[in-house]
Amino acid sequence: MKSLIKITLLSSVLFMGIGCSEEFLEKEPSQFLTQEQVTEAATDNPDVLAGTLAGIYSLQFNSGTGGTGNHDDFGQKGYDIYGDMLSGDVALSVSSFGWYRADITEFQAPQDFTRSRNYMPWRYYYRIIRSANVVIASAGGNDAIPEVEANRYILGQAKALRAHSYFYLTQYFQNGYDPSQPILPFYDSPDDVNGEKVTAGEIYDFIESDLNSAISLLEGFNRSAKNEVNQDVAKGILAYALAAQMDRWQEVKDLTDEVINTGNYSIMTNQEVVYTDDTDDDVDNGSGGGFNSVNSPGWMWGVDLTSDSGVGLVSWWGQMDYFSYSYAGYGDYKAMDAGLYAEIADDDVRKGQFVQNPGSSNYLQPWYKFFEEQRVPRGSSQTIISDLVYMRVAEMYLLNAEAAANLGMDADAKASLRAILDMRVDDTSYLDGLSGPALVDEIYLQTRIELWGEGKSYLALKRNQGTVVRGANHLSFVGVAIPYDDERLTFEIPEEEILYNPFISTQN
User: Which helix (H) or strand (E) holds 332?
Assistant: First the structure.
């Protein structure tokens, strides 16, 4: 519901602008009331907790939430682009303005802890965590089970958002899964100030605990808008966190089975995943495509942007879409990696998502997958109202197939994979001859193709312990083999954290 994103009188109190703190990680997030203030206000007005939670959701798409004025600093989808580029599946094919080129595609930020783009994901995810801690404490604390139904649902959402942020921190700040390696400071209370690094195992245990609690608290929650985390989304986040540990496959399969079997979402059809223009003239009057509307039945989690959301050029659409007012329309072309494109079968409808120009491998832009609804080149408005997708049910099918294949349950794996591929290609009989590692590899490939540009390639690269080999339409490191745990693909603890947290003195 669009009205949930609008700033209410309550939200205006919560989003009071103040000057920047001298400390890197704010002890009291400046966008939100303190825990004590929220608790006191909630005594007279229970909507305060809901308003504070709505503020956290808005951080997911607001610009500057990584603490900078950079035009790639705009919340979750900004770091989805980082991951897609680091994985190699999204190529920066033409760079006129310089966004992403040196720091991300040339790996300077992951190798230099003083860079702002090394700082941004750390700042963003810990900002979400600290803000969630305020809501959780105000709702009764980590062990609470509120008597009021609305407060139970708020607590469940806050715990899921906190776990989601910790999960992404583990992905971006640890080279490869090692439960014994100290990787991150841990905070589960708004009273926490600074902390030493704890092991990945402790962080993952906490993520799992938070999400299991969230799943229980969200029982019966009928959300009013898809930007809110419901029980299915919490299960999806938990499935990703368990899959990243690579020895919890049965639990991954069970969770994804549960989401799929709800019947609440349907796999996007061919007409929904590809825009088609069958006319022979120059007028763009085709049909199809469902990646600009949160109303797509295949979307599990996303945000409904409106003119009131205040989103413009500094956004995912402003960086990725030729048909929005965007850098992608004026010379910073983001394209599918040419090597990955070559692996898409000729009869696969998803090949039609990308501009094909025989004269240049640069032109593999996603003109027919992601586009502003009016399809006016370079945008008809500087205000973005195309929606943002965070999770869709196809991910659950692919994770289910991956889990089953890793468990040796080949028939189940093929069934889940076929549920998608039967809608994308003419003949899936080739799957019959696949088993073991070959089947796992095929599921990994189809995950990269189906979810291209949606921020999931980096997670899949690490889960599958893959190797990046960039195709010819990248501007740098073409043909260089870079393994998933290479230092160039993982960020360091930022300089600011080392300066202001006395318990951390080194990046590693």
Answer: strand 332-336
End-to-end CA distance of the chain: 43
**pLDDT tens profile 479-496:** 999 999 999 999 999 999
Count other Cβ atoms within 10 Å, centred on residue 59. 19
Residue 139 DSSP symbol: T
**Cβ distance 449 to 344 under 8 Å?**
yes
Measured CA angle at 432 (ends 429, 433), to 5 deg: 115
What per-residue confidence (pLDDT) applies to 34? 61
Closest alpha carbon to 177 in 475, 410, 461 = 461
Judging by DSSP bridges, how do beta strands 299-303 and 332-336 pair with one another? unpaired
- Only one residue has tokens 């069958």, namely 278
How many Å apart are CA 144 and CA 142, to the nearest integer? 6
pLDDT one-digit tens code per residue, 164-185: 999 999 999 999 999 999 999 9
pLDDT surpassing 80 at residue 103: yes
**pLDDT reported for residue 363:** 79
Q: Is the pTM of this model over 0.85?
A: yes
Angstrom CA distances, 495 to 7, 99, 283, stand at 34, 22, 52
Query: What is the SS3 assignment for 184?
Result: strand
Residue 232 in tokens: 């299915």
Name the strand (E) or helix (H) holding 93. strand 90-95
The token pair that represents 103 in the structure block:
């720091």
Please give the C-alpha separations between residue 238 and each of 32, 328, 388, 427, 455, in angstroms, as whole numbers: 27, 33, 21, 33, 17
Alpha-carbon gap, residue 236 to 358, rounded angstroms: 39
- Please state, in angstroms and rounded to a whole number, the distance separating the CA atoms of residues 317 and 331: 14
Strand partners, 287: 276
Closest CA to 462 of 445, 483, 440: 483
In whole angstroms, give the CA distance from residue 489 to residue 486. Answer: 6
| Calpha distance 293→336 (Å, rounded) | 22
Which tokens is 219 given?
Answer: 């029982």
Output the pLDDT for position 35: 60
The two tokens of residue 48 are 């305060």
Q: Give the residue from 73, 15, 508, 121 showing the smallest Cα distance to 311.
A: 73
Element holding 261 (H helix, E strand): helix 249-261
Phi-psi domain of 268 (left: phi exceeds 0; alpha: psi -120 through 50; beta: other) = beta
H or E stretch including 81?
A: helix 76-86
Query: Which of 307, 412, 331, 318 has the alpha carbon at shortest distance from 370?
Result: 318
User: Whose structure tokens read 């080149």?
Assistant: 377
pLDDT tens readout for residues 367-415? 999 999 999 999 989 999 999 999 999 999 999 999 999 999 999 999 9
